[in-house]
Amino acid sequence: MAKPIWLRKRISIENINAIRVEHILKDGALHTVCESALCPNISECFNQGTATFLILGDICTRNCRFCAIKKGRPNQVDPEEPKKVAKAVELLGLKYVVITSVTRDDLPKGGADKFRETILEIRKNNRETKIEVLIPDFKGDRDALEEVLSAFPDVLNHNIETVPSLYPIVRPMADFGRSLNILYWTKEYNSSIITKSGIMVGLGETEKELYSVFKMLTDVGCDIITIGQYLQPTKEHLPVKEYISPERFKEIEELAYKAGFKYVVSGPFVRSSYFAHKGYEKISEVKNK
User: Fold this and answer.
1) DSSP 143-154
2) Cα–Cα distance for residue pair 67/72, rounded to 1 Å
3) What is the CATH number of the domain that holds 118?
4) Theoretical Cys-Cys bridge with 112: which of 48, 74, 144, 195, CB 3.0 to 4.6 Å?
5) What range defines the domain where residue 52 resides?
6) Is residue 231 domain-resident?
């Protein structure tokens, strides 16, 4: 299926900010989800001096059929990684940072301790920096989640990715209810933490299914949702069933607001961390009124 014109985007990492980001990441032997997941927004974000850090290595223990991140047997976790990420945040002068990871089912509590350490290290020398964590499901381990939450990230993000009926083919090692619990438990632990999720469209979901998912997310207190087009990373990944037009994305955005979200980002190139600071700022404005 040929990509429509609205999905044609030039990727070019060429300005001084982008080169600086690349050098800082390389010097720290750090990974970004921007590179590992083949994000179409990489040039836009790097050119603005931003990046989403990928901790716990760059090899995932799961085999989701939509994701471009490498799968297999992961390497040992770098014990200095939290400090290296914190240093990169300082060097880049980031006011808002997103920390995510590959899924590490091989580690105790899925590596939750490293999320906590990374948050705490960032705050040592970057007290004003807002921190969003985009976490895996930790196999439904509430203690693991609470270890992350004990460091009080400003935003807790966990992507639902798709509708329940498509989980067996899209996320065969995940569970919809388990992912929903992550967001519910977060609000139960501390209702002031902003919660966020993301979903892909174009995999064969129906509007009725989308609205149902939106309602389930808002029912557990989810504040923000990102909605983007699924793009097939390689021929080995799931094929695209439908390319959603920008006009249709606007309709889906309205559907999400109708379901009760406080902030919605919907569009062909939208990804979970794309301009993530805007959602935080919007929710904070509402809270402070």
Assistant:
1) HHHHHHHTT--S
2) 13
3) 3.20.20.70
4) 144
5) 11-288
6) yes
